[in-house]
Description:
With about 270 residues, chain A is α/β, with parallel strands linked by helices. Chain A has helices at about 15-30, 105-115, 135-145, 155, 160-175, 195-200, 210-215, 220-230, and strands at about 5-10, 30-40, 70-80, 100-105, 120, 145-150, 180-185. A 7-stranded parallel sheet of chain A has the order 1-2-3-4-5-6-7.
Amino acid sequence: MAVFVDLNISHTVDKKRLQNIIETAAHLGYSTVAINHVVDLQQKKQEIGKPKCVSELFDQFPIVQGKSRPIKVLNRLTLVVSEASHFRPTNEFKSYDVVAVFPKTEKLFHAACMSFDVDIICIAVTEKQPFYFKRPPVNGAIDRGVFFEISYVPAIKDSTMRRYTISNSLSLMETCKGKNVIVSSGAEKPLELRGPYDIANLGLLFGLSEGDAKAAVSTNCRAVLLHGETRKTALGIIHTMKKIEPTAERREEEEAPVLKRARTEAV
Amino acid sequence: MGEHASYERLVFKNASVYHYMKIDLILESEDKRLNAAHFKQLIISALRDLYGEIGAAFPFDVLKFEEDTLTAVLRVYNSGLVKLWSALTLLGSYHSEPCAVRVTQVSPFLLALSGNSRELELD
Amino acid sequence: MFTNLEKCPRNLLVCEKSSFLNEKSRHDIHVAKHFFNYKVSILIPECGIIPSFLSSVVNGFSKYYLVRDLPLHKLLEDEFLEKVVKTGSLYALSYKTRIDQDNTFAILPTGQVILSVDKDTYEELGLEGKASQYNHRQPMRYVVTIDMTDKSLAPGGKRYKRVMWALKEKVQLTSDFLLARYSIGGDEEGLLQSCLSQYSCKELRPSVSTQTLRDLLCPSLDPADLRRDARSHDPQQFLEWLGTVTMDMSSNNEATSFVSTYCCPEPQSSMSQALVYTVTGLLLPEDIHSLLKELRRYFDEPRFTSWLSMTVHGFADSPISWGSTEHGFHKGGENFYTFVIFKNQDYWLHMATGANDGCPP
Amino acid sequence: MVRFKSRYLLCELCVSDQSSLQLLDDRAVFTGVRGAVCRAHGDYGAALCSVSFAVKYLNADTGVVFLRCRKSHYRILWSALPFITHLENRGQKVPCAFNCLYVGGTIRTCQKFLIRYNIQQLHRMLPHCHNEAERLEVRRAVLNCSLKSLEKEEEEDE
């Protein structure tokens, strides 16, 4: 029981469209959204840039429907990896609130589950899953508090992809038993977004139970965000940042322990 | 107290055989018109896409449809609720033009649809 | 075929049949215990305009206030407690907070404060509460109940100080609130306003709307027959019909028609006109009780109809439904009751709640 | 390790012309059945069935087919089979119907059933032989074929 979150709004350079999508998300009752920057590491010369500051997007963020708060917008990085050597955590990661990885091979999936310092592992929805989900890596990911993501927009757009989405997520559920799953949109247009209760219902088709399906758009997303925070900070206990003042020497600032590690555990 | 009705109490669990849904159809271009029959046909075709001929055969009713606002109230058997709802969620186009269905409220009681406190706006 | 898709959330419907003249009749308790009412709609068959005695009752409904960004501890300070909470019945419900997502607060006229909060807030708050009934895998929502009338919570006491410390220093729980206060004298006009003068406070009156329906079909009702064994329609069918009327739907379809096969339940009769009268806002149980009393008087004069109905909807995001029974929002958050009042002072009462709710009393 | 439970559907392909069975292969049956599931149960049914769906065995001589799918969804597959009126392979249409004989949890139980079924069929068909010579011919053929090639039996029936 937490606020509704959509962690996958596709980034476009078209600012107007992005604003439109975020307004629609706020209207549908999402309290937090993340703009997804995809970097395909297969292609050469792909650099992980710093994301644009979200505050440039709006002068005033749209109010979430039925609430008096404005919507929260975050940045997310998704790395498409097909070779293990491509994945190199860099400092740029820290400028994103959430980092996801889309492993293309079984070996990488294993590595992503067991060792990569990421928050989300994307599940293929536009093609047939090229490998089986094995229990050890999936359990490893669950233990580490990493979440699996299913995007539903391809299922709206195309009948074949709908089949892949459903069958891939069903085979994932056979292994993970509905734990550590989030459902997000991947929307490129406002009309592709769906309301949180609709998604909670759609989760039943993906093999989730009713409670798990609602958690997939709310509590699990909250856990992802907290997990992201632990990556940015030292386990969420110490937060270091540079002081911008030119005269002052670099100092470590200790913030109050906002997070306890236990809280990021999967729910 | 012979003249008055004697006290009687009944408790029903899952008494209602139906669920009711209040929905909005949103089309990209606003000049398209459709009537209740077209609307139902659209939903049936969405059901057929997702659940095939067998899925498209289950009954549901369009209790109310307003052509100017494209809002509707549907009635569906409990066993078909999840199917109908998910078909509406995955409905993405009408006559090859993007569209979306927004579900405003779902309830096992039709009366509850007439008093949704989430619609209260005091500003 | 797809068994996992055929389940749906449970719902409860409690039906009672009794007479207002029955000494043991509990109708007033049921009304009084349903604290946060959002909408009342009255259906009077064969009636064109609302009788003046009814509209005057409705006009006398208590005002309510929308207060912006009000810290919860303000409502629990000694001064406010003494002046407002303990001298009349105060109803407070956080506004624009959703029970399945946000922290939701309510103050009941019994002096109980109910905080339905998420896990983070609960842990920071450090007040004793219990896990919400509607949790999944791990508790993510907790309900804290503070009884301000409890002696150990008297202002100045140790426990009181702790509560205030938690709400003031630990976490500043702030929200928009809907407030209303019922007092018999009604002398303290603006008492609430003066107490909360430093916050933006808007006075609101319940809004009223009237709708006349013509030529409709209506099921014939027999007060003695709640269960409807003998006849063919049951309480659900009646409630469904009531729904179609209040939402103005056609109810004379053929069984073969394509769009809708809904029909008015048999046996039926036709009605030349009917009046639907709705009041919306934060409505107090006391006011609803007086409305109910007046509705019973409707039959003092000879009328064309033998029954009328009153439906009261609760707030979907209230943390309680009846008394202190927990209320939740799964898909619909419905909690409402319907009185069907008969000429001979018999009544039916239907109380309904949705999936994440306790059973109505 | 938890085993994923499967169901095997033992089906018989009924055709008017026995030789047309030779036109079929695993692939044709696979696409035909998948198409039927998709028509009858839509994208959702097709997606459910596609998890571990396979044509395990096809005997082009006797028309015996083994289909495998997950235990939880075999009814979806089963209920779509009656709607198949023809299969297609390389542009050639083979009108046929699926007759589901047995549903088992392992290939082994299906095989046992198939043997029993074929023996039954043999007993049923044997009295139809027109003369002693035909009967002897059948007997010889049955004795000739080893236990390994069970499917031969049925061929002799015809």
